[in-house]
Design a protein that fits this description.
8-stranded parallel sheet, TIM Barrel, 4-stranded antiparallel sheet, N-acetylglucosamine 6-phosphate deacetylase
Length: 367
């Protein structure tokens, strides 16, 4: 909509409209920002992110705050805090820390466990010595530690105990993602039929599409309601394959960062959990083995690439960082749109897709 406006009242959107209608709402103390003809979008929602600014989200509350500050400056107003595979004790401690942050910071949506119930062959940048099968005791401990803030868990559905785990997590209101998996098409379909609703960073950490063995990606595009995460950084997935994903699953692509500590920082040596990572030219790889180890992406750049390199329209690209991820974690009623009663989260983007201004929960953030 051209010449549009949005009015905030505290943490919520009060009204939306076009032309001069906002003047009727403005009082002498009302703060007014002119977007200057730039794009005004809902705040971005990242459901898969591990860090930034030299800090990893596994490093505790201060590391999380440091990393989120970087992403918020790039338009991400709400974040799910992703954790890599770790010991049981460390994961439970991290889940508890995130629960505490979520209780005091509405911009922290909760946690995402990317592991430890992952396939060894497709472990990617996860410590293989800590991978394990799901057992009921650990599932209950995770849910207890998260205290209602576990939003997503990635697991390999072909592993023993995984089917029961899917049911347990879904019953607890957790979105289950298929990922880091050797599952074939049929096993993936079975997982989605059992309640899994996300494909973790599609095409990465799984078998690709073969004309006689379509694999998890085809299972996800086939199944209504399944969201496909995509890391649109030009490294993890070729732009033409990203275009095919958008075409195959319209309205179900969530652009994510999967960002690690080097995001917003210089190339160099970093840690992802207990694994050493080297970043060169903005591409993160494990020192041992050379596997891609997350990204250094921010969501504003993911949008830019979606429009300029993949070729999707602006509205579709913005939906992929707002409405789709919000719906994926059960927040479609209050996040991901500039609509009355929704969270007062907004981003002004220039024509070059850089971020000019950010509001979250009705408050301006540094950009």
């Amino acid at each position: 909509m051209r010449d549009a406006w949005v009015a905030f009242s505290g943490p919520l959107v009060l009204a939306v409209g076009a032309a001069d209608g906002w003047r009727e709402l403005a009082g002498p103390q009302t703060a007014v920002t002119d977007a200057g003809g730039h794009w005004l979008t809902p705040g971005f929602v990242d459901i898969h992110c591990h860090g930034a600014g030299g800090a990893a989200f596994d490093d505790g509350a201060e590391g999380i705050r440091t990393g989120l500050a970087v992403h918020r400056a790039h338009g991400t107003t709400r974040s799910v805090i992703s954790l890599v595979t770790n010991t049981r004790a460390n994961l439970l401690e991290s889940l508890s820390v995130i629960a505490g942050l979520a209780a005091t910071d509405p911009l922290v949506l909760g946690s995402h466990l990317e592991g430890p119930f992952l396939d060894l062959e497709f472990k990617g940048a996860h410590n293989e010595s800590l991978l394990r099968q799901a057992d009921a005791g650990e599932l209950d401990a995770m849910l207890d530690a998260a205290a209602g803030t576990l939003r997503q868990i990635t697991l390999a559905p072909e592993l023993p105990g995984a089917t029961a785990a899917i049911g347990r997590f879904v019953d607890a209101g957790v979105a289950v993602a298929v990922g880091h998996t050797a599952a074939d098409y049929e096993q993936s379909r079975a997982a989605f039929d059992a309640g899994a609703s996300i494909l973790t960073h599609a095409f990465n950490g799984m078998r690709g599409i073969h004309h006689r063995a379509p694999g998890p990606v085809a299972a996800a595009t086939h199944t209504p309601g399944v969201t496909l995460e995509v890391i649109n950084d030009g490294t993890h997935v070729h732009p033409e394959v990203v275009r095919m994903a958008f075409a195959s699953a319209p309205g179900r692509i969530a652009l994510i960062t999967d960002a690690m500590a080097a995001t917003g920082s210089a190339d160099g040596e970093y840690m992802l959990g207990a694994l050493a990572v080297t970043v060169q030219g903005g591409v993160a790889r494990l020192v041992e083995g050379g596997s891609i180890a997350g990204s250094t992406l921010t969501l504003d750049d993911a949008v830019r690439r979606a429009v300029n390199e993949v070729g999707v329209d602006m509205a579709t690209a913005i939906d992929a960082v707002t409405a789709v991820p919000a719906r994926t974690i059960g927040r479609a009623a209050d996040l991901g749109a500039l609509a009355v009663g929704f969270a007062a989260d907004a981003v002004i983007m220039r024509d070059d897709f850089s971020v000019a201004a950010v509001w979250a929960n009705g408050t301006p953030l540094p950009a």
